[in-house]
Design a protein that fits this description.
By secondary structure, this protein is mainly α. The chain has 19 helices and no strands. The chain is about 70% helix and about 0% strand.
Amino acid sequence: MKPRLIALICLLNLTLLGVGFFWGGVYVASRPAQDRPAAGPLPDALPTHAAAAAVARAPAAPPVLIYKTNQFQWSQLESTDYRQYIANLRAVGCPEATVRDIIVTDVMRLYAARRGKFYQNGRAFKYWETDEKRKLKQTQLEEREAQLALIDKELPAVLRELLGINYEREVNKYFVDAEEDDRRLAFLSEDQRARVLALRDQFEGRREQALREAPDGKPTPGQIEQLRQIDREQEAALAGVMTAEERYEFDLTTSPTADRMRRELVGFNPSEAEFREIFSRERALDAAYAYEDTNDETVLAAKAAEEQKMREDLEAALGPDRAAQFEQTRNPDFQSLTVLAERFDLPPEVSQTVLDMRQLAEEARRQLLSNQDIPADRRDAALNAIQAEAERATRQTLGEQAYAEYSRSAAWIHGLGAN
């Protein structure tokens, strides 16, 4: 919903509320005094019938009209202090989603203006001047990159502090998918989803704050313990919302480990049981090195050793055939071919077919180059023939449209003819 429309809806709600108060005030004030609730205690003796009749015959006093106004101006809510602005919106009953939309839009507009300043060289526009006059100087380009990097770091922190939201996830709701969380957490009730997502935002914010305070982005031992304490508190909080089974499914659905596995296991097509088997091991490894410095050679070596042990254990758990397919997912070309096959509705086996053709073509090239008895001109012609055949066979396997897409990144094909 557009920000201006959101603001108008909020304003309309407040105006209708004010009209209700106005007419309610006029009605109560215009009621005759004898019809109003008694302000004091009841009298000792009720009036007689004659007295009551006399009162009934007496002319009614003219109503006293008390006019109330509830004129509303948006300026009553706006504030140069975003915290106060948010408090004002909440105080008049604006829905939290509306508050978020208004503030996000306003903050994004503010930072867009800040960004825009670094795309201009300060020269006034003159319609007769050609474009190079308004290009940024090299020093301005360098300054722009530095300033944009600061903005990219500052903007998420500001929205997190003001609204407790994740910047990237919030922006994705406008451009990618506003219902991703609901689909992923469909196994929870609506109330559970709301509470779980609120806890996620809360603890994410605390971690980000702790990491912002870390020198050069590297947490100190004390900050690492603080981060681990946050993890423990989040675990306890989530345990109060979900059962143990729901908690495990929550991790399978939303954790960084599970998201990484879904990217890395392309082409493996794990069953649910296989995914859980791999996840339990991957999650334990990720947890063990969550806050370790993986640039440290000692840490890196220890993690590599544990990863190797994990893969050996998985081979025993999966069996040799599935373990071999699992290892195949580490090949980037296999992954890109698998994605391509899925995109163009090709048989899944085409990925392996193309990889086999690549292996044969590259082996033929190696043998040709290793034979020093072949004249240079004949070797060049043979290399070109190998490349042409590889292009023809790959195109035939993938089809024209998929091959055109694949060939853009298939450096191995274009390099076959090189000497």
